[in-house]
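Exam revision sheet. Question 4 asks you to relate a sequence to its structure. Input first:
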Amino acid sequence: MSFFNKVGSKMGLTDNNNQSAEQNYSNEQMEDYDTDENMQDNVVNFQTAINSNAGPQKRQMKVIIIEPTSFDDAQQIADHIKAHKPVVLNFENTDDETAKRIIDFVSGTTYALAGDLKKVGASIFLCAPNNVNVSFSDLGKSNIANGDKLPWE
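Answer key, structure tokens:
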């Protein structure tokens, strides 16, 4: 008998006939139910579960390298950043006006997604989403904010 039934019967809120109905069940009916055959196969080896969840799951990160040729490539770059994939942009074969427009678009996208845009070469940029940390050994030489000239300036 459950706690609530006991409390209810003492207070006169429930009928004691429920108790007699529970006692009418025979033990034979309970034995007919075979749990082994009716259970689904949900057995998990604890040692296997512990080993598979023990350490941090290492997922390979893919770095996308794009050599944009037109402003239409900017949306593809933004989609990769939105999908938390770092993108390396190589503007060596891109005309200056197109490169400037793409950098403007991508820098706005990267900022909106709390990412980071770094210049890593003369005309090579790294767009890192917010799940990627970027650090340089000598940040002063690679930072646009310190006055580095862009190739189209």
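Marking note for examiners. The chain has a mean pLDDT of 75.
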